[in-house]
Design a protein that fits this description.
Residues 73-478 form the Major facilitator superfamily (MFS) profile domain. The radius of gyration is 29 Å and the shape is globular. It has a five-stranded mixed sheet with strand order 2-3-1-4-5. The protein has two domains: 4-53 and 489-561, no CATH class; 69-263 and 283-484, MFS general substrate transporter like domains (Growth Hormone, Chain: A), CATH 1.20.1250. By secondary structure, it is mostly helical. The protein has helices at 15-33, 54-62, 69-89, 95-102, 106-134, 136-154, 163-178, 184-191, 197-222, 229-257, 268-274, 283-291, 294-324, 329-357, 360-381, 387-401, 404-416, 421-450, 452-471, 478-485, 534-546, and strands at 4-10, 503-512, 517-528, 553-554, 560-561.
């Protein structure tokens, strides 16, 4: 059958006139092709939109909106992530004092930090499934609630024989971390626009890093090195009580403030994801697709190597510094603070840079190389006997190594779109926890036998491996392609550039007719220029005729021109 081309050029200033034009054109198409009648609202039943068009494109183009509330959401998340990260490192930053108070070896106190890494591995997939099924609000309430519960449990461990209670409290906080650690990229994608997702992700990660920084700074101040165990218990109780009070306040705020998602999608890529029916999504298939994505697998390994080195360095920093500078417990905490604060600056700068340039691969590779250089310099300056040099080199190391963490999340979101950001970032964190446990245990044993220099060289070798792997990752930026692609109209029918029309266009919608027809084009104009009219209609007919199609032009009142 001869292909019929139907094009509607309507002078439309109100939705009801648009509906009338659709109905008029479709009635005439139905007489030729036997197609379905339009619904009363101007929509057409039985019509499947072209890829990237129809309701999805309409939503992506017309309903994208940013809310000021997004900043409240990301700052609140950042705050309770801070509280949880503080509880992770609060034992390690004064390892020697907790070891003496509970009468446990340093390795046992190290496990209070490593239990965070261990808990994440088996719980990632259940939590990622809950995120997809129950939404962001449920995950936020669960994470902040468990964090609050763990903080209060620790208040029951203020006797030397109650080490098991403090372990229980820390394990509960470790479970809470599973509900927190993989959320930054998900919150950024669901709440923030395409030009600010990397910055938003950096802010979300910022809180976790700030919590680690506070965990290095505050415990040595609140828990001084005193000999009397009762005095030591009193100082520990102050730290635990402040933590519990802050965690409780944040938990209440999360219940009041947090939502699953904004009422309108913040970007076209997010609009396309939200427009898909829930039954089309399979969590198991999503994981399988991620595990068959070669670029993502390479990123997962390289991210795990970098983050694992960071976790080992953070956990063992107290022992590392005290082995070269005995009695410098407070300065050991300050060195840790320097690493994290400089890393926070690096993360924020990296996020802004990515939003401006979208150069994910090159930025990630450069930051990775500089992390390796920073660790090598730190390794060779740690034993020089000058603390100020250690502060400088530790700051440079932190700027790149800690600044890499949000880069990995955002790069993964780009490589794996449209898969859930919670799943991709969760797999990155599983890799980080596995390598973190391996590196912490291995480096601790190497330090005990061969010294801190050998332990740090051990980490440097794996950072070198991670740098090589990063160089082989291809920059397949799928999310950026989706954001760019949804801005364009995709059609088999000839399209007329907006600048050549005698009126300015507000939006273009394309609906396919049945298989024996071409496309119905509706040009929705926002303002009409005075020289529109028959000359323009003749121009449209000429263009369509040149393409070998029979042209039918329909005005807003339903009149058809041939």
């Amino acid at each position: 059958m001869t292909r019929e081309g139907w094009s509607a050029v309507a002078d439309l200033r109100a939705p009801e006139r648009w509906a009338g034009a659709v109905a008029a054109v479709w009635r005439r198409a139905s007489m030729v092709s036997g197609g379905p009648e339009p619904a009363g609202n101007g929509s057409v039943s039985g019509v499947r939109a072209a890829a990237g068009e129809g309701p999805e494109a309409e939503r992506a183009g017309g309903e994208v909106r940013l809310l000021r509330r997004r900043w409240v959401v990301v700052l609140l998340f950042s705050s309770y992530s801070l509280c949880n990260a503080f509880q992770w490192i609060q034992y390690g930053s004064v390892n020697n004092l907790f070891s003496r108070f509970y009468g446990q070896p340093a390795f046992a106190i190290d496990w209070l930090s490593m239990c965070y890494m261990l808990a994440y591995i088996p719980l990632l997939f259940p939590v990622a499934w809950l995120l997809d099924c129950r939404g962001l609000r449920f995950i936020a309430v669960a994470g902040s609630g468990l964090n609050c519960l763990g903080a209060w449990l620790k208040l029951g461990s203020l006797k030397p024989h109650l080490f098991a209670v403090t372990v229980l409290g820390q394990v509960v906080c470790a479970v809470a971390q599973v509900f927190i650690l993989g959320m930054p990229s998900h919150i950024a994608s669901v709440w923030f626009g395409a030009q600010e997702v990397s910055t938003a992700c950096s802010i979300a990660v910022f809180g976790n890093q700030l919590g680690i920084a506070v965990g290095f700074l505050v415990p040595p101040v609140l828990v001084p090195d005193v000999e009397d165990l009762e005095q030591l218990a009193y100082h520990i109780s102050i730290m635990f009580f402040i933590t519990a009070a802050v965690a409780t306040a944040l938990f209440i705020l999360v219940i009041i403030v947090f939502q699953d998602k904004p009422p309108h999608p913040p970007s076209r890529a997010q609009a396309l994801i939200q427009s898909k029916p829930p039954e089309d999504y399979s969590y198991l298939h999503s994981i399988l697709r991620l595990l068959h994505n070669t670029n993502f697998l390479l990123l997962m390994i390289s991210y795990g190597l970098n983050a694992g080195c960071f976790y080992a360095l953070s956990t063992l920093l107290n022992r590392m510094v005290l082995s070269h500078y005995p009695g410098e417990v407070v300065n050991a905490g300050r060195i840790g603070l320097t690493i994290i604060l400089s890393g926070m600056v690096g993360a924020l700068i990296s996020g802004i840079w990515l939003d401006k340039t979208k150069t994910y691969k090159y930025t990630t590779l450069v930051v990775y190389i500089m992390s390796l250089v920073g660790l090598v310099v730190y390794t060779f300056t740690l034993s020089l006997g000058h603390l100020w040099v250690v502060f400088v080199t530790a700051g440079a190391l932190g700027f790149f190594m800690t600044g890499y963490l949000p880069l990995g999340f955002e790069y993964a979101a780009e490589l794996t779109y449209p898969e859930s950001e919670g799943t991709s970032s969760g797999l990155l964190n599983v890799s980080a926890q596995v390598f973190g446990i391996i590196f912490t245990i291995s480096q601790g044993q190497i330090m005990d036998r061969f010294g801190t220099w050998a332990g740090n060289i051990f980490l440097c070798s794996f950072l070198l491996l991670g740098t090589i792997i990063t160089a082989f990752i291809k920059a397949d930026l799928r999310r950026q392609q989706a954001n760019l692609g949804s801005e364009q109209t995709v059609s088999k029918a000839p399209l007329i550039p907006a600048q050549s029309l005698p009126f300015s266009l507000g939006q273009t919608l394309i609906y396919p007719f049945p298989s024996n027809c071409d496309y119905l084009l509706l040009f929705l104009q926002s303002s009409v220029k005075p020289h529109r009219g028959s000359a323009f209609l003749a121009f449209v007919v000429m263009i369509l005729a040149m393409s070998g199609m029979e042209a039918h032009i329909c005005s807003a009142d339903g009149t058809v021109y041939h």
